[in-house]
Write a structure and sequence with these properties.
The structure holds two protein chains of two kinds.
Chain A: E1 6-10, H1 14-25, E2 29-33, H2 37-56, H3 62-70, E3 72-75, E4 86-89, H4 95-108, E5 114-117, H5 124-128, E6 137-142, E7 151-156, H6 162-174, E8 178-181, H7 190-206, H8 212-223, H9 229-236, H10 238-252, H11 261-268
Chain B: E1 3-7, H1 19-22, E2 30-34, H2 38-43, E3 53-57, H3 64-67, E4 78-83, E5 94-99, H4 105-117, E6 121-126, H5 133-149, H6 155-166, H7 172-179, H8 181-195, H9 204-214
Parallel strand pairs in B: 1-2, 2-3, 3-4, 5-6
Antiparallel strand pairs in B: 4-5
Helix pairs in contact in B: 5-8, 8-9
Classes of the chains: A alpha/beta, B alpha/beta.
Chain lengths: 291, 215
C-alpha cells in the first residue's frame, strides 16, 4: 500500500469542510472537490474564520495557518483528485449519488487510492459495490463538528481488504483522530442511537411538551450533555438530519428513526438551522463552530 | 420571597440537606411539598388559593393526578416538579417544573425564581408522563441494552463511542449499571404502561435486574 500523502475530500458541506480542516491541519496536502463553486467559497471562508480563531486562542501560529491554507485547495474539477492516495467522500446520503461519484473517481484516481465514505447511515458494502474497487473501500465516519471531534467510526465492508482497512486506520491516527472499529450496521453506533434520540426531542416540541430551550436546558443540566438535541439539530441542519434519518429508517424500519412531520414543515419554510439563520432557534452570522 | 417546605416522607428530589430546604420558613407565599406522602399533604393543606404557588414533588405520576383535570383547561397556582435523578445516583441540578394549560404565569415565574435562587436549573414542561428527560433517555437506554445483547459492540466500545462521539460524560451501559438497572426498569415500565410504545418496553437486562432485586 502506498504511503498516503495527498488527501481528497469530495463534498464541501459542513462535514467535508470539517474533514478537510483535520487533514490539512495534520500536514497532508488536501484537495477539496465540489461541483458547486459557491459551496467551495463558503467552506474556504468558514475555514479561514476557524483558523483565525485558532490563532486567537493560541492553538496555532499565524505562520502555521498560512502553511496549512497553502496546502488546502478547492476545485470544481474532479480530475484534480488524480494524485490522491485517499479520497473521503462526504456527499449526500444517497446511494445513487455516491455510486455515481465513486464510479467516476475510479477512472480518475490511481489504482492504489483508497475510497473512504463518511456515510453515517448507508452500508459500506453497498457503497463499495458501486465504486469499482470494493476491496479498497472503507467506512470512515467523522463526527460533527469534524474539526473538533476526535472519534471516527471505521467500518470494513464485506470485501474490504485487511490491507486497506489497516492503511485507513493508520491514516486516521496520523491526522490526529481516534478510530473505533464498528460493524457495517445501519447507523453504526452513533447515529443508531443519536438519530432516534433527536427525533424523540423533536416529537416533544411537536407535542407541546416543552419549548426547545427548555428541552435543551434539561438535557444539559440533567444529563451533562455538551449540547441539547435541538441545538445540535440546528448545527447539523434539518435537511441533513432528514436525509440521515430517512436513510436510517429505510434500513431499520425503527419507528423512532422515522422523521417527525415538523421537520418537513420547517424545511419547507426554510428553517434549516444555523445555515439559514433560523431553525429551532434564531441566529445571526455564519461563523464555524469552535476554532 | 418567603416560602415554606412541607416534608411528607422520603424525598427523591431532596433526600438530604440543600439550600432550598435550609432557606425555608414556617410559612410563606410559596409552599413546596416534598416526599412520597406529598399527595396527602397537598389534599389536607388549607388556604391554597392565598398562595402564589404550591409546588408538589412528583414521582412518575402526572400533576393532574393531584389536581384533577377538566376539558383541557385545568391549571391554577398548583405546579408539579421533580429533580432529575437516575436510580441511586445523586439528584442532578435539573428541576423539571410541570405546568398545566391554564397554570398561573405568576406561579410559574415564582417557582422558577425560587429554584434558581437555590442554585438549580429549571426546565418548564407540560404535564406528560416522563416529562422531558425520561421521555428521551428511557428509549435510548433500552436500545443500548438491546444492542449490547445483539453484539453490536462490547459494553466498553459502546460507552467509549458515545462518550467520544457525542461528548456524553458517561456511556449508557456504565451509567445504568452505576445507578441501577432495576430503577430503570421501574421508570421505563411506567412509561410503557402510560404510552404503550415498544421503545419504552424494558430491555431484557433491566427486567433481569428487577427480577434479581425481587429475589
Amino acid at each position: 500500500m502506498n504511503e498516503i500523502k495527498t488527501v481528497g475530500i469530495a463534498g464541501s458541506g459542513t462535514m467535508g469542510a470539517g474533514i478537510a480542516i483535520v487533514a490539512a491541519r495534520a500536514g497532508f496536502r488536501t484537495v477539496v472537490y465540489d461541483t458547486r463553486a459557491e459551496a467551495l467559497e463558503r467552506a474556504r471562508s468558514q475555514t479561514e474564520g476557524f483558523f483565525a480563531k485558532s490563532v486567537e486562542r493560541k492553538k496555532l501560529t499565524r505562520e502555521q495557518v498560512e502553511a496549512i491554507m497553502a496546502g488546502l485547495v478547492g476545485t470544481t474539477d474532479a480530475t484534480a483528485l488524480a494524485r490522491c492516495d485517499i479520497v473521503i467522500e462526504a456527499v449526500f446520503e444517497d446511494l445513487a449519488v455516491k455510486h455515481e461519484l465513486l464510479g467516476r473517481l475510479d477512472s480518475i484516481c490511481p489504482p492504489h487510492a483508497i475510497f473512504a465514505s463518511n456515510t453515517s447511515t448507508l452500508s459500506i458494502a453497498e457503497i463499495a459495490a458501486g465504486s469499482g474497487r470494493e476491496d479498497r473501500c472503507v467506512g470512515m465516519h467523522f463526527c460533527l463538528p469534524a474539526q473538533l471531534m476526535k472519534l471516527v467510526e471505521m467500518s470494513p465492508g464485506i470485501k474490504t481488504s485487511e490491507q486497506t482497512f489497516r492503511a485507513a486506520w493508520e491514516f486516521c491516527k496520523a491526522i490526529g483522530q481516534t478510530p473505533v472499529k464498528t460493524k457495517d450496521s445501519p447507523g453504526f453506533i452513533l447515529n443508531y442511537f443519536l438519530v432516534p434520540f433527536n427525533n424523540d426531542a423533536i416529537r416533544l416540541v411537536e407535542a407541546g411538551v416543552a419549548a426547545p430551550a427548555d428541552i435543551d436546558r434539561a438535557v444539559k443540566a440533567g444529563l451533562g450533555y455538551p449540547m441539547g438535541p435541538l441545538e445540535l439539530l440546528d448545527l447539523v441542519g434539518l435537511d441533513t438530519h432528514l436525509r440521515v434519518a430517512e436513510a436510517l429508517y429505510a434500513s431499520t424500519h425503527d419507528p423512532r428513526a422515522a422523521v417527525p412531520a415538523l421537520v418537513k414543515r420547517m424545511i419547507a419554510a426554510g428553517h434549516l438551522g444555523r445555515k439559514t439563520g433560523q431553525g429551532f432557534y434564531s441566529y445571526t452570522g455564519t461563523a464555524m463552530f469552535g476554532g | 420571597m418567603r416560602y415554606q417546605v412541607i416534608r411528607a416522607g422520603e424525598s427523591r428530589s431532596f433526600p438530604g440537606s440543600h439550600p432550598l430546604i435550609a432557606g425555608a420558613k414556617d410559612s410563606g407565599e410559596i409552599v413546596v411539598i416534598i416526599g412520597v406522602g406529598a399527595d396527602k399533604a397537598f389534599r389536607t393543606f388549607k388556604d391554597r388559593e392565598r398562595k402564589i404557588a404550591i409546588l408538589i414533588e412528583l414521582g412518575t405520576e402526572c400533576l393532574g393526578a393531584h389536581t384533577g383535570e377538566r376539558r383541557g383547561e385545568e391549571g391554577s397556582n398548583v405546579l408539579g416538579f421533580a429533580r432529575f435523578r437516575l436510580g441511586g445516583g445523586e439528584p442532578t441540578n435539573l428541576v423539571e417544573l410541570v405546568r398545566q394549560p391554564r397554570s398561573s404565569a405568576a406561579a410559574v415565574e415564582a417557582a422558577r425564581k425560587l429554584f434558581e435562587q437555590a442554585g438549580l436549573r429549571v426546565a418548564v414542561c407540560m404535564d406528560f408522563a416522563g416529562r422531558i428527560i425520561d421521555r428521551l433517555v428511557r428509549p435510548y437506554y433500552n436500545a443500548a441494552l438491546r444492542r449490547l445483547d445483539e453484539g453490536l459492540a462490547s459494553a466498553d466500545d459502546l460507552d467509549t463511542t458515545l462518550k467520544l462521539g457525542l461528548g456524553y460524560p458517561e456511556g449508557p451501559i456504565a451509567l445504568l449499571e452505576r445507578t441501577g438497572l432495576a430503577h430503570h426498569f421501574d421508570v421505563t415500565q411506567a412509561l410503557f404502561e402510560a404510552y404503550g410504545e415498544p421503545a419504552y418496553a424494558p430491555a431484557r437486562r433491566a427486567r433481569v435486574a428487577k427480577q434479581r432485586q425481587k429475589d
